[in-house]
Design goal:
By secondary structure, the chain is mainly α. The protein is 71% helix and 2% strand.
């Protein structure tokens, strides 16, 4: 009997983490209303971390369930749609009617994005490689991106990044990325060569240290890095969509195939195409 109670306790762990994430998201709104901006941002970050862990814990414990999926979807709507929008509005756009419209637009787009995500989960005829790409910016990344102007304000104080027009435009931009159909590579799908594992671990150590010493700079760097990775994700998706038979290949084989295609391409800039010859020929 003791063993049965222990198994049941482990199976509710993922849902418990999701509920804690909801509490963190709602508490961020409370801190924003109390003018505790730093704590409000910390609560959004905590919700994002818990959201990243609950699914992995559920798969590890084989505790996935339909109810857990529904709770997770609702939690994402609160934590990454409502909470960031309200925090940014309260702290930076409270006197702007246009700011409230932008905040509403972002929150609604997060809900629409989650609805589309849940719909795609029921699609069984999609190619295997589509499971490694998000359609549009994922909700946690959207939440971190939305608070970037707030992070810039906390780090650098007032500037063009705190202007109402820019913050509103930034909210609309993030909302557009969230509901877009731009393929974005999932971070956990990126493979790391064995020779670079030590370097990656050292980088994660630096990120952990920066989270305590320079949290606002870290947020801005993470948002910038994510936006810069989008063109590479689009390029990768187009390449594998045109060659689905290569999906199971290793990254090294991908790179070799790309080099071979570039060498054989008729539009490749080369000395031959320009009508030049190497010296001595």
């Amino acid at each position: 009997m003791t063993r049965t109670r222990r198994v049941v306790g482990l199976h509710i762990l993922p849902s418990s983490m999701t509920v804690l994430a909801i509490c963190a998201g709602l508490t961020s709104i409370k801190f924003a209303l109390d003018h505790e901006t730093q704590l409000a941002m910390a609560m959004i970050a905590a919700a994002a971390i818990l959201d990243g862990l609950d699914g992995r814990v559920a798969r590890l414990l084989d505790a996935s369930s339909r109810m857990g999926e529904e709770i997770d979807s609702l939690a994402d709507a609160v934590n990454f749609g409502v909470a960031p929008a309200v925090v940014v509005y309260v702290t930076m756009l409270a006197s702007s009617p246009a700011g409230w419209i932008a905040a509403l637009l972002y929150a609604v787009c997060i809900v629409l994005r989650l609805a589309r995500f849940n719909t795609l989960l029921d699609e069984t005829e999609l190619p295997a490689y589509t499971r490694e790409y998000f359609v549009g910016m994922p909700a946690p990344a959207g939440a971190i991106a939305v608070i970037a102007p707030l992070a810039a304000f906390m780090q650098f104080q007032t500037g063009w990044w705190t202007a109402e027009w820019f913050v509103c435009a930034w909210l609309v931009f993030c909302a557009a990325l969230v509901i877009s159909r731009i393929p974005m590579r999932k971070m956990h799908a990126v493979s790391v060569p064995p020779r670079l594992v030590s370097l990656v671990l050292a980088g994660l150590t630096m990120v952990a240290a920066a989270a305590f010493l320079f949290p606002y700079i870290l947020i801005l760097l993470l948002v910038g890095a994510y936006l810069l990775h989008i063109p590479f994700g689009v390029r990768s998706h187009r390449w594998v969509a045109a060659r689905p038979e290569n999906w199971e290949d290793k990254p090294r084989e991908w790179r070799a195939a790309r080099r071979a295609i570039r060498r054989a391409g008729p539009n490749r800039r080369s000395m031959t195409r320009l009508g030049l010859r190497k010296p001595g020929r």
